[in-house]
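for the record, two folds in this file. i put them one after another cuz i was lazy. first one right below, seq on top, structure tokens after. the second one comes after a little note so u can tell where it starts
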Amino acid sequence: MRAVILPGKKEVQVVDRPKPVPGDGQVLVRMRASAICRSDMSLYYGGKPLVGGEAAKTGTIIPGHEPAGDVVEIGPGVRGLQPGDRVAVYLAIGCGHCTYCLSGYLSLCSQWKCVGFDVDGGDADYMVVPAQNCLKLPDPMSYETGALLLDNMGTQYHAQKTLGVSGNDTLAIFGLGPMGSAGVLIAKARGARVIAVDVLDSRLEMAKELGADVVINSTKEDAVEVLRELTHGEGVDKAIDSSGNPAAQNAALDSVRKMGSVALIGETSATTINPSEQMIRKLLKVYGIWIHPIWMFEEIANFVIDHNIPVDRYITHRFNIEQAAEAFRLFDERVTDKAVFVWD
């Protein structure tokens, strides 16, 4: 089979690998869609991976933690799946027995492994995965949409459910890459007034196309000042930072009204804040949001279908696996919004 590996220093190789064989409790999935995520760039650049252990540092793991495809073979002991099932592959593999695994938060397991970082992911013709990680796609849902629900749309849904975003809210979203684009779609479906903040006009234009009510280029305007003007001097009800940029994280904290709430999604190693002024004296609620629990996938899928959310509208580029070098380069250069490998 053909597979992508990322040795580091922006090198991309498409190599031949043996087709994997499912073991006990595992299934073989033929890929139909596998999305590129910003966290994949840590493998693309090399050095310290964003997640994962020693295996992620070797440059030999097949990336791709947002995959969807068809079950083609099941290993011994598998129940509830059969060849022909259409599935998305949940990215966190846990021990299955600890408190976090039993509550569905597999990524909080002390022994967890990440698909595409610790074990081979979906940027290949086939992948082997534990059967419990295979989440059946509803009949009306495309493989591409199913793949984006695993991390991109799923994380935003998790964030906005945690914040309780509703039609009563004005929500500011900082960072309009693929994660922020997903946030606009989810927030509009929940009925919120959405204000999108970014530094690139192209991304703000996409946000408008997806339904954002107002867009702000923070290189041209003081985003916090504009957000206060748009909310009668009070500040927005809720904010989400999808960028991981320290300036945007601070702007999110500054722009929210007293007793408001903020969700931080974008990852960064260090940010300097003023807890007294930005949080304590505002009675602000601040949430760190990571991977949604595995049981939430069905809820997310139903939400997308019931609200007819056009997830594929922010997929701007599709590639075959042989075009992997171009795909990662364009994604790195922020030419694309969401980019997806597809198979016929």
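(here's the note) second protein begins now
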Amino acid sequence: MPAPLTEENIRRAPKVLLHDHLDGGLRPATVIELAQQTGYDKLPTTDVDELSTWFYGAAHSGSLERYLETFAHTVGVIQTRDALIRVAAECAEDLADDGVVYAEVRFAPELHVEQGLTHEEVIDAVLEGFARGTAAAAARGHVIVVRALLTAMRHAAHSREIAALAVAFRDKGVAGFDIAGAEKGFPPSRHLDAFEYLRRENAHFTIHAGEGFGLPSIWEAIQWCGADRLGHGVRIVEDIDTAAAGDGEAPALGLLAQYVRDKRIPLELAPTSNVQTGAAASIAEHPIGLLTDLKFRVTVNTDNRLMSGCTMTSEMLGLVEAFDYPWETLQWFTVNAMKSAFLPFDERLAIINDVIKPGYAELINA
């Protein structure tokens, strides 16, 4: 008999996370302590519980722009090397404790230079933190591999420089490149020189697209920029006609949706975050149900654990409750993510065969 799909058992299951923001996953207590240490005096409250509630409430506004405003506080307290190391180490430990065995955590070096750090120093500090956190987790029996994604802000003009750093650090713990920020008015094609450079360097990159803006954002990310993955991509559902699904017929896919599915372009879906930013009405109504049924390359992610008040365990538990998914579907999400990771093929295969499949086999055949 399969093990019950409880929170405790889902936490035990090996999980893979492709879309998680370092500055969106701080512990509330750490935010307060770092604010006190660095002299940051703009927090709405210094009570841990009240601060957690404030972040969640601000993020649950239904507006991507309002959601992004919460980052002023988290970014504000991680402007020193020590702060970056601490936050990155805690990130790795928290993910490992949640059963994550592989994670790609993204951050924007350009957001952490207010007190004089260079982009290179920011990256070094974060990678040092990941190394410390993974070592501490391993000492407790939780093995995790953490790689960084370097993010450029789509409203700024540093993408070519950050892309070069992603290439320079790719043998030191950086898995790839990303652009993030408000989508509307800032199309990915503004950063075409960065993406062309990355392709010449045989480098991997994902692009935030199809969350705050619709199909044109997804089309540009893929067809103009050549994205390997779509950061969210949830609004690809706008190119799927479910009204055509009567009398046993499958929904009709538009040309873009058909292309995304045929090419197995991974969708970095983050259900709770997508609901908070207005990209989905609720978990039960989230397009992940339809996209899973249609066998898109669906992956499950946290996006911002602090703002969304979520973990990989809670995201998967929410999907089980909403869609009655069995262990086999959770394993499918996990294998999808590992197949889509910016990691060499043999390393991906080893994690799938040696960690993910045995871990789920124990739960399915408990």
